[in-house]
Structures are given as structure tokens and as C-alpha cells.
Amino acid sequence: MTQPVSYAREGAIGLICIDNPPVNATSQAVRAGLDAALVALAADTEARAAVIFCAGRTFIAGADIREFGKPPLAPHLPDVIARIEASDKPVVAVLHGTALGGGLEVALGAHYRIALPGTRLGLPEVTLGLMPGAGGTQRLPRLTGTEAAVEVITSARQVGAEEALRLGILDAIGTGSDPRAAGIAFAQSLLAEGKGPRPTGGLPPAAPLGESALADWRKRLSRAHPGDVARPEALAAVQDAATMSLAEGLAAERARFLRLMQTPQRAALVHAFLAEREVARQPDLEGVAPRAFDRIGVIGGGTMGAGIAVACLLAGLDVTLVERDAEAAAKARDSVTGLLSGSVKRGKLAPERRDAILADTFRAVDNYEALARADLVIEAVFEKLEVKREVFTRLDAVCRPGAVLATNTSYLDIDEIAGFTARPGDVVGLHFFSPAHVMRLLEIVEGARTAPEVMATAFALARRLKKIGVRAGVCDGFIGNRMLQAYRTAADHMVLDGASPYQVDEALTDFGFAMGPYQTSDLAGLDIGFFNRQRKAATRDPRERVPVFADRLYELGRLGRKSARGYYIYDDATPRGRPDPEMEGMLASIRADLGITPRAFTDQEIVARYMAAMVNEAARIVEEGIARRPLDVDVTALNGYGFPRLRGGPMHWADAYGLDRLAGEIRTYAEEDGWFWRPAPLLERLAREGGRFADLNR
Ligand code: HSC
Ligand code: NAD
Questions:
Q1: Based on the number of CB atoms within 10 Å of its own CB, is 232 exposed (0-12), middle (13-18) or buried (19 or more)?
Q2: For 302, which DSSP code?
Q3: Which of 99, 429, 440, 581 has its CA 20 to 30 A from that of 40?
Q4: How far does the centroid of ligand 1 lie from the alpha carbon of residue 61, in Å?
């Protein structure tokens, strides 16, 4: 392999080039290469200034995440950066692409920084459960002041080049698209002006935050990121920069960084980051060319159809939406317009772009013939097999050969739907989540006969929509909803047995879920669960316990938020819901009717049972090949079901909890309900053998 760092010289300018695809991460070889290049620079008597720049799509995007959790190898990045800063020849860093984490820290160690237009800078370490560990918390505030440094580091946001210039992080924005040339020009101008080294660490420290500002930050961070340990640590480190010498501050930063490196949160967040990229890796689809998908058809303009149309429009695709009749088409157009205007209001879309989309690339119609030229059609009509049959029969008749025909069904059998056409190889499930233009998850459901090019096309569409595509197999609920049904059922059993829905929600949101199961029901509408139970009533096993209370609420017309009352009461005073004082009475009478003597549950038991049900079902999902690897389950739960990111996903959580312990608890639960609690064979086997789900990700 060629060396990832090279040293060369042009005239009086030493050129240090890093070339370590894909993102020039500072792996051990890069650190060693930088060290060697700095030695060469010092020894090169002809060089009077130096430029550090990167080949490829970006400046250094950070430390090498794949080295985390392994013993750190010398040279360490802070030491390499100290060597850059100590150079007696002025060093210029030229940024392009995304200069992030350890990459920006390298640049902060240089004496001058310029960026090509469009560069984005940031210190996103907190998203990985870390904080900047190579001087970022000490050098950034010396340039920007303490408050701005705290904001940049704890928000993890990417700062644009112009803003970075204003904040004092950059000295200039270069021109053109060649970092090497821009660097040489800037370094020559330094020499011409007689400017020498200007170490950031030698600048006077910024003023510290006052007591009340510091307390405000602590409060703000804990409210926005409950349970997160990295951000408070980063805040304290930036404050150190204002109260300690550089050497002390750097030592304290290193200690804090190493402490965070050992936390379960760091392991979980890095797992999530890598898993979200790994899901796209499908060895059997490598080299399979996706079909073109410029012209999209959407059938149905309800909640999902409108959201899917907007997701496609925002990605620059052409969309034809087909509704049942002209009136419904007009309504769908209004919904799409409303969603686009929402994007305008949130600053995500220029008003002119919205108008252009509505004029040129979107139309809502009531005739299927409009789909004759569509490349890919996504159906989002009512969740009834008969309606799906009607739609797919029509699509089969009007769509051109080779068009991809997708269904957004939540539960129905995709193979059966494919069978409504004479082209089952072209049919695939594209399971979006509500709101479809916001949620990042897209389950790509592979039918028994789905063609590889169709799968490749679905993954390409996910990428184009900036969504995370997860491959799933056909079963009731695919990966996500199947798991959801299991843990929802565990929650319902606890409510039947004596827990209050409010306690269940609180225990689970304290654990870190975005919402508890009953808050989620209220949001989605209690009709959904009711119809689902109806759908399955005919095949229900007599041993299955029915959540009678949920049916009762439905029958009372308490559908959740949309009827202002479900498990919670929603009114002007409490728009986000408050417990209903009548709930306990209703539950007590149902329990009495069923002959149940209620008992108390601790929050810990609520979480334990909920998680056990989730992981147990997930183990079956993996074992049956519905999910290809445990990490596909984790990515699904994290991006579609509000699973706490700090815990990495259900499978990652289970490995940390201990599979043996979990399997033992399930066996205990099975003593009271052997129908629901049947330990998954895969979980039993891993528990017995001391294995982990993570082993199956490789
Ligand atoms: C850090 O820097 C810690 C330092 O402060 C201190 C360290 C020193 C402490 C020492 C103490 C003794 N590493 O996302 P994409 C791969 S923490 C390795 O699909 P995009 C990625 O896995 C780090 N690999 O592309 C994928 O690989 P695949 C702070 C990395 O264009 C490929 O690159 N930095 C990697 O959508 C493409 O990635 C961050 O948190 C890394 N750092 O986005 C930045 N980064 O093709 C994390 C990416 O094999 N990265 N890869 O699947 C990102 O945010 C995005 O990847 C980019 C590109 C915006 C860079
Ligand atoms: P919805 O009731 O809001 O919308 C369905 C739309 O389809 C209606 O506007 C209706 O007029 C239209 N429609 C019905 N028959 C049609 C036909 N023959 N031709 C053209 N249009 C027709 O339903 P929804 O919530 O958007 O769900 C749609 C699908 O998406 C279902 O399969 C559902 O299971 C699935 N889904 C829903 C969600 C969710 O959270 N709502 C999430 C994922 C998947």
C-alpha cells in the first residue's frame, strides 16, 4: 500500500498531503506519516513555510472511528498536533469537504487556516459519546470565545465556511477547487508579508463563562439530551481552557476524553454510527445496477402518500400522485402543498423552489394512465388486501415493462401482492415511516420473487432520499412492526396485571425512549391497534391475552390525539396530554371482570419485560432471516421506533445486559405465561454458549 502521508516541496513551500480514503481519518498510519512529514519539513532547509492538505473528497473527517475501543497506538494525535503547533516554520491548513473532529483539531494546531468554498467544519465527537480529545476544547475557544466554542462543540453542528470566518476559526476562504494550489498561494503571501508561526495555543485564553451562564448551559444540555454524559464533560473542558494553562487544559482534556472512551454510551453510539453505514452493505447486490427512477408514481395521497410524495420531491424527483377521484386528488395536492410549505417555514426549502416543484415536477390526478411512463410507483392506499389487489391489477395494466412496483403496506403479504401482477420480480415493499418526509428509516422488503435489480434500485432510492434503507424479509410486520407488536403486547400485559399506562410510559421514557407505548398509541390513533387485532381475531390462539382496555377505549370513541382523548386527555391547558383520572377506575373494573388480582410493578421490571419481549422477538427475526444481521434490527429500532440512541439498539443493549441474564428472566416470565414468553432458540443458544449478537454482525 502507498503511504497515506507524503512530503514534497514546491519552491519554498513544504507540502504535506494526506491521502487516506474514504474520509482521510487519522488512523495510526496517518498519524505516523504526519509525524514523519513534520520531521522532513524541519530538516528541509529550502522550505520556509508548509501547507497541510488532503487528497480526495474531504479534509480529515476525524479520528479513525474503527480504532475506538482498541488500545491506542502511538503516535497519539494530540502529540502530533503539538508538533505541528511547535513548528518554527509557519504551517497553513487548507480545508475542503468536511473538516471534522480530529481533522479540525489538526487544523487548529496549524498556524493559519483557510478553506475552499463550501467547506463545512465541526467537532461532532459528542454524537459518538466523546468530546474533542486532541486540543479542540482548548484551542477553539482561544479563537472564538468560550460561549461560541461551547455551542459549536455541544451542538455537534457543521459550521459553514463563511460563519467559520466570522467566528475567527478561519483566516480566509480560498478560491477554486484545488486545496494544494490554494495552500501554496496563501503560504507564499505569508512569506511575502514576512509572517511567521502563530500558534493557537499561544493565544491568550478566552474569558470563562460566569456561574449563571455555566449553570444555564448545564440545564439546557440535560434538558435537550437527558442522560447524555459527553456534553457536560465537553462543557467543563471548554471552561477549563479559560481557567487553566494550555498544558494543564490539554492534560485535563485528555483525561476526560479517555474517561468517555470507556463508557457504554460511547460504545453504543459508535455502534449506531457504524451500523447505519453497514446496513447498506449487501454483498449479493454488489455490482447489480439499479434501474433509473427519475419519474415516481405515488398511489394514494393520505398520510403516507402525501409524505412519500414530498420526500421524493425534496430529492428532486418528478412525482405523479394518483388518487381515487378528482376531489381526493385536489385534497392530496393541498396536503403536499402544506408539507412543502412546512419545509419552507422551517428554512429547509426556498419558497421559489416550492413554487417550481408545484408548477413543474408535481401533479395529483385521478387516472392511472398518467403512470404509463413512471419508473417506480409506490402504493400507499388503505391497508386492505382487496384494495391492494385492485391497485396492483391496474398498475400491471398501465405501467411500462421494467417499472418498479412498490407497496408501502405495514403488515400485508408482499408475495401475495406481487401475485396480483404478471411481473412479481418487479414488486418490492418500501415501508416508509410517518411522517414520511422526515423519518429516516425505509424498510426495503424483499419478496420471494423480487429481482436483484429491483432491490438495488430500492437501496439507490433510499440513498437518493437521504434515508437509511434496511433490508427485510416478508412476515407479519417485517422487522420493525413485528418487534413492536411483541413489546406492545408485553406492555399491555403489565397494564392488565396492575401497572398504569402512565407508569409504563414514564418508566420507558426515563429509560430513554422518545415516547412510551401509550403516548405512541394516542399519536398514531387507537383505531390502528383495534383494526390490527380485528384482522388477527380469526387466527387468535385462546391462550393469547387481549388488551380489553384498548378495545374499550376505541369503542368509546377515544382514538387518541385526533379525538382529544385516548389514554391521555389533550386540551388547551395540556396540549401534550395529561393522565385521565377515570383510567384507573376503568382498568380496575376490567381487571375484576377478568378475575385478575392487580399487583404492583417497579419501573425496573417494566423496562426489563418490555426489553425482553423486544429482544426475544428480534432474535426470532434474525434467526428466520427476516433481518439479515442483528445490526439491521438495531438500525430499524433507532431510526423508526424512537429507541434511545445512547443504548445503541435492542441487540446492542442485550449484549451489554447479558444474554444469559435475559434468557433467564424470560424463562421466569414463562412460568406465568408460557404462551407469550417462549424463549427464542437463537437467544437460548447464544446465552448457553456465552455468545453475543454482535458476533453475528461480522
Ligand atoms: C474524533 O475525531 C476524536 C478526536 O477529537 C480525538 C482523537 C484523539 C484522542 C487521543 C487521546 C489519547 N473514521 O458517512 P459516510 C467512513 S471522533 C473511520 O457514508 P458521507 C464511513 O464508515 C470522530 N471511518 O459518507 C464510510 O465507510 P464505508 C469525529 C469513517 O459522505 C465512509 O467513511 N468525526 C469516519 O455521507 C463514508 O462515510 C466524526 O464524527 C471516521 N471518522 O459523510 C465524523 N467517518 O464506505 C463522522 C466516516 O466503508 N463521519 N467514515 O461504509 C461523518 O460524519 C460522515 O461520515 C462524513 C461523510 C460527513 C465525514
Ligand atoms: P390513509 O387512509 O391516510 O390514506 C389512504 C389514501 O389512499 C386515501 O387518501 C384514499 O383516498 C387513497 N385510496 C384508497 N384507495 C385508492 C385507490 N384505489 N386508488 C387511489 N387512491 C386510493 O392511509 P395511510 O395512513 O396513508 O396508509 C396508507 C398505507 O401506508 C397503508 O398500507 C398503511 O398500512 C401504510 N402505512 C401507514 C403508516 C402510518 O403511520 N399511517 C406507516 C407506514 C405504512
A1: middle
A2: S
A3: 99
A4: 6
